[in-house]
Amino acid sequence: MDVARLIALRQSVRSYADQPVEEEKLAQLIEAVRLAPSASNSQPWKLILVTDPDLKDKVARATFSALVSFNKFAPEAPVLAVLVIEKPRVITQIGARLKDREFPLIDIGIAASQFCLRATELGLGTCMLGWFDEQAIKKLLHIPASRRIGLVITLGYAREGDPLRPKRRKQAEEMSSRNSY
């Protein structure tokens, strides 16, 4: 599938079929993240695929609460991908300070995008979650206190009959320009 088609097809899936994701597809998703570009090739991420059903449900429950319920669909997903931000190389840290840029955040965004596009190509659905109880998930997954979780991504097969929704996006003229702001 060409990249333009993948970009058009990729959407946030919030309803998953009760169907496991095959190991060979998980391996291909790991490879997509492994090959993602990063500042100074620092690869400042650790990808944790949560596939154990009991553990996955506990992690999924840490993505919503009684007050914040918009991720209540997360337990339906058979897999959760947790992207942990690792410390970048010293040269990247120096460059980040000099340029006042958070390169690891940019890098995990790229890695997450590659993960989601590859999942789409493999017939899988994803949804990136930025709202979660970081401390609870760190405890569940034994993530060191010195690390941060960048994103949690739900992964699985979209429930049958979940149609491709039209993308609501700004018009090109609203979000882009040429030669000046």
From TrEMBL:
Lineage top rank: taxon: Bacteria
Any GO molecular function: oxidoreductase activity
Keywords of the record: Oxidoreductase
Residue ranges of coiled coil: none
Domain Nitroreductase intervals: 8-157
Family: Belongs to the nitroreductase family.
Protein name: Nitroreductase
Biological source species: Desulfobulbus propionicus (strain ATCC 33891 / DSM 2032 / VKM B-1956 / 1pr3)
